[in-house]
Every structure is written in structure tokens, then in C-alpha cells.
């Protein structure tokens, strides 16, 4: 089984061609200003989170665990989660996102993927997670449903198919996503 990263799930949903340019025809990825800014914001948020209560997560108490590396042989998946909360025997993954558009589908399934890794790590079900939108300073609860887990497994299969067949996916239907894409220069058929 080809081992994948949780970020691959996020990238595939954003644009399947990113998988092609990462695994099949690797090209140098341009580090954008947005990416550098995001790293700085994550560091600051880690510092602030350590001092906060759990009220914004609607939890009375808990323990925060930062940057846990997670891996599942069963799923062939790995990744480093921004944070997770352990509270009253339950586990809640938290992904920090810098976006002005609110939670997006690719972020949601990135979180679901981490929830599935936490389930394997702790051998306990994960019912909810949070997408923490940095500019709003708001955590959005995301339910981890059976259908969401099936969707992630389907995405993992599709990613592996791109890699095995070495075939470039069709261009993304959402042309606005191409504007900030670090692989834009390599998509010759996208204007």
C-alpha cells in the first residue's frame, strides 16, 4: 500500500493535480508568502492556546497535546496534527487554519483524516473535532460521521490511483483556486 500524508487528502480535494505534481511528476514547489505567514501564525497560536481555557470548545476541562505525529498502518496514512484535546475520556482533533472564507471542504476532510488517525492511535472512537479559524478566533465543531470516514477512504483510493496510473487529472473546475496555487506554472492547459 502506498503511504500517504493527511495533507494529501486536503490537497486532492483542493485540486487533484497537486497529487500528480507531488508524486508522479515532482516539481519544485514555490513557497508562497501565504504559506510563510501561516507558519508564523501557528507558532503564535500555540503560545496563546496554552494559556486559554476550554470554554471556546464548549468543554469544561481537558489537556492540550500539540503536534502529535500520528500514523495508521491500516489506512496507510500519517500526519502531524496541530493540536488535540483530551477531555473526560474523549479525543478532539483541532486543526488551525488561516482563511477569511471560513471552514472549507478540504479542511473538513483533513480534520476527519486526523480523527481517523486518532481513533487508531487511542483505539477509541472520535465523534467531533474542531477547525479553528485563526482570523475569526473561532473553533467550528465538525462531526466525524461514518459517511465522512467513507469519503476519506475513497479519496485515499483515488490518490493512490493517480500515483499508480501516472495520469494527470483533469484541470480543476474552480479556476479561482489556481490564482494562489504553488503549482500554477506547471499546469500548461490552465489559463
From TrEMBL:
It holds the Pfam family Cas_Cas4. The keyword Isomerase does not apply. Its cofactor is Mg(2+); Mn(2+); iron-sulfur cluster; [4Fe-4S] cluster. GO terms for molecular function: exonuclease activity; iron-sulfur cluster binding; metal ion binding. One of its GO terms (biological process) is defense response to virus. It is an enzyme of class 3 (hydrolase). The keyword Transmembrane does not apply. InterPro entries: Cas4_exonuclease, CRISPR-assoc_prot_Cas4, Dna2/Cas4_DUF83, PDDEXK-like_dom_sf. Belongs to the CRISPR-associated exonuclease Cas4 family. CRISPR (clustered regularly interspaced short palindromic repeat) is an adaptive immune system that provides protection against mobile genetic elements (viruses, transposable elements and conjugative plasmids). CRISPR clusters contain sequences complementary to antecedent mobile elements and target invading nucleic acids. CRISPR clusters are transcribed and processed into CRISPR RNA (crRNA). This is CRISPR-associated exonuclease Cas4. The lineage of its organism: Bacteria, Bacillati, Bacillota, Clostridia, Eubacteriales.
